[in-house]
Amino acid sequence: MRQVKSIELLNKLVTINNDRIKGYEVAITETHDEEVQSLFIDLASTSRHCRQLLIEEIQRLGGHATKESRLSGKIFRVWMDVKAALTGRDLRYVLDSCDFGEAFASSVYQNILTNKGHLLSSEQNDMIRGQYENLSSDRTRLTSMQKVFVLAQSVIVSAQQHIKEFKTPYRHDYD
User: Fold this and answer.
1) What pTM was computed for the model?
2) Full DSSP string of 2-46
3) Per-residue pLDDT averaged across 63-70, rounded?
C-alpha cells in the first residue's frame, strides 16, 4: 500500500514538471527577448531533469509514470496564449504568469514534503527536497528577471518623461 501511495505522489510531481515544461515552451514563444528565452529554456531543463529522476524512481517501484499534465495547467496555458495575444506579448505579463506557475509548483512540492513525506522513503524525500530546492532557485532567478524588467520599465518611462520635457519649449512668463 505504501508503494502505491509513493507512486501516486511521485506521479503528481511528474505531472507538475510536465506542466512546467509545457508552460515554459509556451512562454518561450511569447517573448522575443533572448535573455528571457534562455532563462525559460533553463527552467524547462530543470523540470526535464526532475521528471526523469521521478520516472526512474516510479519504474524502480514497479509503477508507470504518467505522461499527463493537469487540466488546470492546460487551461492556464491556453489563457496565457489568449492574454499574450491581447496584451501584445507583454513581457511583464509573461513573467508574472510564469511566477504564478512557479508558486503553484513549489506549493505542491512543499505540501508533499510537509504532509505526505511519511508515505515516502528517506531517499525519495531527499530527492524531492533536492528538486524543491532546485525549483526554489529557479523561482529566485525568475523573480530577479521580473525585478530587472520592472526597473528597466521605470528607467524607460523616466527617460521618456525627460525627453518630453526637453522637447517642450521653454516659456517665459512676463508680466
Assistant:
1) 0.80
2) HHHHHHHHHHHHHHHHHHHHHHHHHHHHT---HHHHHHHHHHHHH
3) 86
SS3 of the chain: helix, strand, coil, percent, to 5: 85, 0, 15
* Domain range annotation of the chain: 2-165
Q: If we measure between CA atoms, which residue out of 64, 48, 80 comes closest to residue 4? A: 64
CA distances from 108 to 66, 90, 130 (A): 17, 28, 14
Which pLDDT tens digit goes with each residue over 89-130? Answer: 578 888 888 888 899 899 999 999 999 999 999 999 999 999
Q: Say how far apart CA 66 and CA 129 lie, in whole Å.
A: 21
Lowest mean pLDDT among 2-6, 46-50, 145-149: 145-149
What would the grid cell of residue 15 be? 505531472
Mean pLDDT calculated for residue range 5-25: 93
Q: Which CATH number describes the domain made up of 2-165?
A: 1.20.1260.10
- Is 54 within 8 Å of 14 (Cβ atoms)? yes
